[in-house]
Design goal:
Blueprint: H1 6-17, H2 19-55, E1 60-65, E2 85-86, H3 87-97, E3 101-115, E4 118-127, H4 129-132, E5 153-156, H5 158-164, E6 171-174, E7 184-190, E8 206-210, H6 211-218, E9 223-224, E10 226-231, H7 237-248, E11 257-261, H8 262-305, H9 307-315, H10 320-358, H11 367-370, H12 372-387, H13 389-396, H14 400-405
Parallel strand pairs: 4-8, 5-7
Antiparallel strand pairs: 1-10, 1-11, 2-9, 3-4, 3-6, 3-10, 5-8, 6-7
Helix pairs in contact: 1-10, 2-8, 2-10, 2-12, 3-7, 8-12, 8-13, 10-12, 10-13
Length: 407
């Protein structure tokens, strides 16, 4: 066993005699392990959180026009410059979907609003009141709200409600702060937070108005920014997408609409987060390179201080491989100390980082997340062992006579 190996005991003795120097060298390993595992866990938790949020709209197909209508309040496009999804295209989409899902046409733009003389900006969605309750829900903690809004009522997102301390009955003016004609509307409800969603309707920092009020204010009647299709059976989503594509995009060279769903957005989000996580982990890995240099320096010092001891071992018949093993044990012990402390610290620091950055630790102890701790520890140990290879080789190849003569 390794514990009963005399050369292992000699390595332990060397670390113990130079404990302060050894621990200072191991600090680099601690920092590297913490950096890699914490950033890895943060990235994984972000991916799991996004995946969970997008899964809530996994049964939704988003159909958007290649020409998105955006304009200031009061802007009305000319009849010759039609943009957005037309009524004809909506009819085709509805006929394809049939009883297999629910079709929800949506207007949207970016606009300004004023609450209690404080200006703000966010997305403004125009949706038929009968469709709102099919995919949005009310947060009753802000007062008894309803999705059945009239032309003089609006719904606001959870972030807006928190930022402006809103509740049901509060008044909001939509339009530029400098404009003299800003219609005032009553808040009929505060929406439940949605987070990152794949259906293109991010309501947390937005205002939802009656579709009739929207077209009266912004124009563009029957020219929807997007159309959402909530499919009853998610297994049929690909077939419905293909059918809509065949029906609406009759010109293959110049499709009039883009068709996406949660799976495509999830792939994009995951790829982006994975790239960012890898980049951050690579930066954290630089500390391991610094630690490798520090461990190498400590091991070279250990060899220099023990030249006579090495000479005695070699002169009494100790094999070169056993001398090498003694120094490899020492570098392994340093790596184990640094990785052990770094792993324990990673759980504490990583938990705090995830909680602060994401706001939830629901996925922290998931295998995909916690796996970064042992992986980072293993990398730390391997870096230490590699750093000790050359000093161990140099020690084992010393001439015993020259080593014994050394002062």
């Amino acid at each position: 066993m390794i514990k009963g190996d005399i050369f292992f005991n000699l390595a332990v003795r060397s670390v113990r005699l130079n404990f302060l120097r050894s621990m200072l060298a191991a600090i680099g390993i601690v920092i590297g392990v913490v950096a890699i595992s914490s950033m890895g866990m943060l990235g994984t938790n972000m991916q799991l959180e996004v995946k969970e949020q997008l899964s809530a709209t996994a049964n939704t197909i988003v159909i958007s026009s290649d020409t998105v209508r955006m304009g200031p309040p009061g802007f009305t496009p000319s009849s010759s410059s039609s943009s957005g999804i037309t009524k004809t295209e909506l009819t085709k989409i509805t006929s394809v979907v049939g009883s297999n899902g629910t079709v929800i046409p949506i207007y949207s733009t970016s606009g300004e609003f004023t609450i209690n003389s404080v200006a703000g900006r966010g997305s403004i969605y125009g949706i038929d009141p009968g469709d709102i309750g099919k995919f949005l829900s009310i947060n009753q903690s802000y007062g008894n709200g309803t999705t059945e809004i009239g032309t003089g009522e609006v719904l606001v997102g959870s972030e807006l409600a928190e930022e402006f301390n809103l509740k049901v009955g509060t008044r909001i003016r939509i339009g530029s702060f400098s404009s003299s004609s800003r219609p005032e509307l009553r808040i009929a409800g505060v929406l439940q937070p949605r987070g990152t969603v794949a259906d293109g309707v991010s309501t947390d920092n937005a205002v939802v108005v009656n579709s009739n009020w929207y077209t009266n204010q912004y124009g563009g009647k029957n020219e929807w920014t997007q159309v959402n299709v909530i499919v009853k059976d998610v297994d049929n989503i690909s077939d419905i997408e293909s059918a809509i594509d065949d029906k609406v995009n009759t010109n293959a060279k110049s499709p009039s609409v883009r068709i996406t769903d949660a799976s495509s957005q999830l792939a994009t989000e995951t790829s982006t987060l994975s790239t960012v996580t890898t980049f951050i982990m690579a930066i954290g890995g630089i500390s391991l390179l610094v630690a490798a240099v520090s461990i190498f320096n400590v091991m070279m010092m250990s060899v220099s201080e023990r030249i006579q001891e090495i000479g005695i071992l070699l002169s009494i018949g100790t094999e070169k491989g056993e001398v090498r093993r003694m120094f490899m044990y020492e570098s392994f012990i340093l790596g184990l100390l640094g990785a052990g402390i770094g792993g324990a610290s990673s759980l504490i620091i990583g938990y705090s980082v995830v909680d602060a950055m994401i706001g939830t630790t629901a996925y922290f102890f998931q295998p995909a997340s916690i796996l970064y701790v042992p992986a980072a520890m293993l990398i730390g140990v391997v870096v230490c062992v590699i750093s000790g290879v050359y000093p161990a080789w140099m020690a084992s190849n010393m001439d015993p006579i020259d080593a014994l003569r050394s002062e």
